[in-house]
């Protein structure tokens, strides 16, 4: 049943991205066509990684990552939800902190000789998460420069708010993991 639900989820996402690409093609919004196709490429890559049963991309992370791509790239940038919903950008950057911590946690948990030093784990995952956040901000900048998308309409202030949102989400998720997961041998 679980695989059937995942397959329905993937088919639905493929359909949404293909529909969006065609829709924006008819509207001659080629930057948005490109973003829709990029979403297709990302779901394809995530699906390939997920199908290999790697510990880094578990079921929950696979679903969360795909939903994040849908809400940020397609709905946020292509369908302008960043402009239509006041705190949409803040919410997504906050959630990105959760997702990047989960990725970092899965990487650390897959290592054989993980040290049970909570401070070390906290620092490594925090740095990893904030690195992911900076890559997101660089991507937003690139979208603005290359496709005139206006993802950083607030300039430096927007970037700093996004980084603070990601930091807050990261810290909450790291505290959750260090409090609850260390008791279960980091799994």
Query: Looking at the structure, what is the overall shape?
Result: globular
Strand content: under 5%
Briefly note the structural class of the backbone.
mainly alpha
N-to-C terminal Cα separation, in Å? 24 Å
Q: Provide the low-confidence segments as ranges.
A: none
Order of helices and strands: HHHHHHH
Could you explain how this protein is built, in words?
With 187 residues, this protein is mostly helical. The protein has a domain of 108 residues. The protein has 7 helices and no strands. The mean pLDDT is 86.
Which helices and strands occur, and which strands form pairs?
Layout (H helix, E strand, L loop, with lengths): L1 H25 L3 H22 L7 H20 L2 H4 L3 H23 L7 H30 L7 H26 L7
Helix pairs in contact: 1-2, 1-3, 2-3, 3-5, 5-6, 5-7, 6-7
Q: Key terms for this structure?
A:
single chain; 187 residues; mainly alpha; 7 helices; 80% helix; globular
